[in-house]
Amino acid sequence: MPSTVPAERRGMLNALGLHRPELRAWAMYDWANSAFICTITNAVFPIYFVSVAAKGHPNATETYAWATTVGLAIVAVMAPILGTMADYVAIKKRLLATFMGVGVAATALMFLIMQGNLLLASVLFILANVGANGSFVFYESLLPHIAERDEMDRVSTAAYAMGYIGGGLLLVINLMWIQKPEWFGLPSGPGLTPAQATLPARLSFLSVAVWWLLFSIPLFRRVPEPPVARESDEHAGANPVRVAFTRLAETFRALRGYKQAFLMLLAFLIYNDGIGTIIRMATVFGTELGIPTGTMITAIVLVQFVGVPCAFLFGALAGKIGAKRSVFIALGVYVLIAILGYRMQTGRDFLLLAVGVGLVQGGAQALSRSLFASMIPRHRSGEFFGFFGVFEKFAGIFGPAIFAIVVSYTGTSREAILSIIAFFVIGGFLLSRVDVEEGQRVARAEEAAVEGGVIAPG
User: Fold this and answer.
1) pTM of the prediction?
2) Has residue 299 got a pLDDT over 90?
């Protein structure tokens, strides 16, 4: 049946990587879950956690950090096992839905968090992080099944751009009704009860849950469950959990056969740690310098909307010079961002730093995702993206730890900002050693062997 989409629009959608319904539906999940990242992880909930839920508790920041760590650690342990199961049994979308359901429910229940509810806030934040980050593993593992090899960079960057739009749009709405509740008929003015005063923020948590659930529907309707590759007689009829552990051990042993993909993982672990540290520590550093809260919130919104066109541009750039070279450019910009951070003095400097992050954040992470996807066999996408998820989670540990150590020795965050450059340099060096063409050749050769029945999958 011929397409009813006008030729001009088809050409534009093809350039963006959104030219088929399943590609657009897959990218919509970035739009959906980025609301959680923006409002819950980056902007509103951290402030609410410290100022409301943990009011009167002396270790609010430490508790928040531990809640974040516990949530990420749970996913890091579960992801490879469940990812391997999803390659053995056709349950990628089912597991995605399960984790998403946990995240949506926990986020919606944040509406109940009131002043002093530190335990409730911590538990719900842990569960929400498990749900969100667990769903990412299975969401990302669908990419090599819906996109051809020459489409992956465009599709991945387009999804990041849609995430910037969706997350940024809801964040703006949330901030409007938090800062101007009277515009929306919400309680405002002096003499409010604690429940009335916190209602706008609590409604923002509920809105994230609704947004996340609603805009996830296209993925479940349009993206097909990837077929399971033909299994060997050894695994036929076996318990999926037992097979998952068996194949997980086999994957560790087999990593030497995917040298380039594994080297890419190591490079990503290191340079993404630097990216994550800049994102997590920026507002802490800004607060230390006395940057106004309003300026920092504006900067968070600015990152979202600068990131939209830049993510698309990085997809186009990758089509011209390759994903690997494009990531190198992004890492070079991050080095300049770290230097700017070291010299930062004013709110204007903070906004310039935000623009710099917006220029390259989506491109660097989206192209890393598609580059890795191009070097793994499709029939093992679940388990390999399980490992990708583990490396991505551990990439949030070392940078902040080194940041804290440097601060403890120097008494200031300035030198700590400079220390982040080491992550980009070392990660970039490892990335330079990745032979992308060889990694892709090995992955395609195994796919052909499995499809031809020469070897059993896994």
Assistant:
1) 0.76
2) no
